[in-house]
Amino acid sequence: MKFIAAAKLPLLLERLGRHSQVYAPVAVDGRVWLSPWTGEDIAGGYVNPVNSLKTLVYPQTEAVLEFEGGETDVTVREASPPAPQVIFGGRPCDAAGLDLIARVFMEGPFVDELFRRRREATTIMTVACRQAAPSCFCRAMGLSPASERGSDVLFFPGPEGYLVEALTEAGEQILEQAAGLLDDATGDQARRACQELPVPLAGDLNTVRLTPEEGFEHPYWEHLARRCRSCGTCTYLCPTCYCTALFDVTRGTRGRRLRGWDCCQFKDFLLMAGGHNARPQKKQRVRNRFLHKLSYHPANYGEQACVGCGRCVDNCPVCLHMAGVLKDLGEVERA
To answer: How far is CA 314 from CA 65, 190, 237, 253, in A?
Structure first.
């Protein structure tokens, strides 16, 4: 491990910003966001930024292609390639969530080129957690406040600076660019980095596997649906949700095809052109959200689509606690 003093961190970000867009945690109106860093103070003392790493690698809205129509033909241009970017200050749970999405878009015969190019142009420098919110449950999902999954560099914060560990080749390149700013970490510093981690809500929730056959018509879904407001906050803030819709924006003979986030909790999510809606009832939509995370995704990828970040808990207007739902569904599974 290496050590970088807190006063030298802005110098490192300045160096990285010469060739990449740098994002860092910045306080805005009392809340911390991963935002373009332009030299302002780097926020500390937060558990999770409002936005996850997903928002910077899989944007809420992005151009897929541009087109221009003539009298006899249409010219189509691909979206511009993404610029290199470095993200500092995301949490390990968010990096694991981004890696989970990467499996969906980059594994198998059908690769999402938009996602692949942006992910390969992104270097992720996560910061291990020194505190846990009541809503955090990463350990219950098989992760930890210092999980390495999805990170290129892992920072361990301390009173005077950060211990730094490169985890990938891209992370090694970051440390090379930090030449002159890093010192060798002492043995005591390295031991403290691992001993001072918080203990979020524990348990063993990452083994819950509810198959559609076991619980498709269980009355529990109606219980959840009565509480849910279908606002979509949970899916938009979730670091592992990835549903999108395509739409065209035109002006005269020119236009762009855009991809934007969608939400399975919205009433019109599966509304067809002919007027048929495959999930007209709220119970069906709520059920699909949890079955996707606990059944469909594990069937395809061998793991749940949740990393225990707690954002859906903190921001849900009716306090639907994901960990609570997992415990309840575990009881359904054993019944």
So the answer is: 36, 32, 10, 45
